[in-house]
Amino acid sequence: MNRREFIKISGVAIAALGSMGMANKPPEKKPNILLVMVDDMGFSDLGCYGGEIDTPNVDKLAVNGLRYSQFYNTGRCCPTRASLLTGLYPHKTGMGWMTASNLGKPGYTGGLNENCVTIAQALKPAGYRNYIVGKWHVTNDIYFKQDSSKHNWPLQRGFDRYYGGLSGGGSYYKPKPMVLGNTIIQVPDQDYYYTDATGDYAIEFLNEHHAEHQKKPFFMYVAFYAPHRPLHAKDEDIAKYRGKYIVGWDKIRKDRYRRQVEMGLIDKDWKLSERDRKVLAWEDVPQTQKDLWDMRMATYAAQVDCMDQNLGRILKTLKKNGQLDNTVIFFLSDNGACAESAGKGNKKIIGTAKTNESYRTAWANVSDTPFRRYKKEAHEGGIATPLIVQWAGLKTSKGAISHTIGHVIDLMPTCLELAGAQYPHTFNDKEIFPCAGKSLVPTFNGKDAQREALFFEHEANRAIRCGKWKLVSTGTKKLPYTQKWELYDLENDRTELNDLSERHPDIASKLEKMWNQWAAQDSVYPLDGRSWGAKIKANVDKKKK
Length: 545
Description:
By secondary structure, this protein is α/β, with parallel strands linked by helices. It is built from 15 helices and 16 strands. The chain has a single domain (about 5-20, about 30-545), classed as 3-Layer(aba) Sandwich (Alkaline Phosphatase, subunit A). The protein starts with a helix and ends with a helix.
């Protein structure tokens, strides 16, 4: 390690990562903000990130806007949502794990705490109307009933209108529990599809705003459930992709990698990570199984395609209402691809309400091209996300790519700066934790958003990114829940193929100390890699009943 690298790392003060009481100068005309997030979509699925799935509306955002190549999430659905909404690392909000269990520790309560505010709560004093459609997933499961406390439902967290699901999973045809405003509702028995309903209500809220509140700016958070499992998709969307994936995952993955290099999203010197060792080479897959695998990926692609169709409907509504040019649009995914296996592989029912099928490790490995590992983990395949920004106020050239390092915690301060709003010290007589994110607005002018370090932990999967260096470790389900640290030079090896921990033990040691200091400060301890079942059994709220 040279002297400059040592000084850069050793000079980082964890306390400097938060910013106290951010105040922004009000812009002449406050922009609307549309924040669109999809669920469990890998880094390479979009056309503008190298994929072959038809996503013309997202791709158009990229052509006219700005793409980010080094943007990060937290690795899992609800922790990412907590960080996105609050500008804090998830443990600081109480959402270090999932909403399914309160583990009795400050970082793991299963719901947003009172020491954080949402973007909506922070924007409301600046005159914004706030809307949300889709997946919420930051309320403890015990509060999903109509007569339960609604302190962590969207309307109590700054939003004026809400339609969507409180939970993190379930059916696209009969999702539960679905909420309109503060009321649990039943979805229609026929012709209901969650992705389309998300688009319908987003359009309804936009039209309502245009008719009744057009003098006010709006913040709208569209949280699509797609393409989270199960593989539920409409016949006409599946038919579009049927047979497209019979060439197999090896070819699809190589083609995506080639396009990513050609686009300039990734460096040509970063090697494509090897196929997951659990996955057969396509040529070794029995011929009798290939059609089933094609059906799985075709259905997944159909889910992404349908999401894009609905995004297109939302954008057309903005244009019709004369709001498109004054709307800052963000598009991203909440974590990497999901490698979980579910379902019995019945090809005849994939796509229908009768299945709980997933597309599994083989196709998740493709979705995360060129990276390795998946959702829940802290390697790049779990935490790297596409981020696209479109706005008439961008100063970068159309279709530009930003290689600045960013994180979902940055969306709060970015939105506040755009709106000329303030991040509060206190809210409802509660002290609010300092925002951990940094505004991305400088990148709108082609500049780099300088930062010291980013930190990650989920289910004892740990990582720290500091400049070009990344220290990462995979969690386990048995004590001490951790494996050895690995060190990667992401400037030369973003696909994490060459572990340098033994070559640079001083850098690894310094980064580990930084991570430990952050973990102690942000209520990450005690690390908990236990299984889902063990954590549910340990639920403090359940024991009280």
